[in-house]
Design goal:
With 116 residues, the protein is an alpha/beta fold. It is built from five helices and five strands. It has a five-stranded mixed beta sheet, with helices on both faces. A hairpin with a 2-residue loop joins strand 1 and strand 2.
């Protein structure tokens, strides 16, 4: 698994490539935990992710719990195979999943609009 990070203010986007499994999830988790301290919007781009194991799901759940306390987390560009895994495991009910970066921005704007 390979990943690339880009930050813009308090937003951190993590682009995942390859397979996210028990052989590499701890490396990503350790890097993310130090980098998300001041982040209010965490985005996982999965357009190039081919596989996610239960260890990868656990990482997403852990990041979701952290981000729920300090902002938002969005998963975008999920392929059919990974979306099926999210459906079977119930993660579609837990995660904010969008089809594109445009939807992620729209979702973020909706979540920070002041209520009337």
């Amino acid at each position: 698994m390979d990943f690339e990070k880009s930050a813009d203010g308090r937003m951190l986007k993590v682009i995942l490539r390859g397979e996210l499994d028990s052989t590499n999830v701890l490396t990503l988790e350790n890097k993310l935990k130090t980098e998300i301290k001041d982040v209010s919007n965490l985005i996982f781009d999965m357009s190039n992710l081919e596989y996610i194991s239960s260890a990868g799901l656990r990482l997403l759940l852990s990041m979701q719990r952290i981000m729920k306390a300090q902002g938002t987390m969005t998963v975008e560009n999920v392929n059919e195979e990974i979306m099926e895994i999210f459906s079977v495991t119930g993660f579609v009910k837990i995660l904010s999943i969008t089809n594109s970066a445009t939807e992620s921005k729209s979702s973020l704007q909706q979540s920070i609009k002041p209520s009337a």
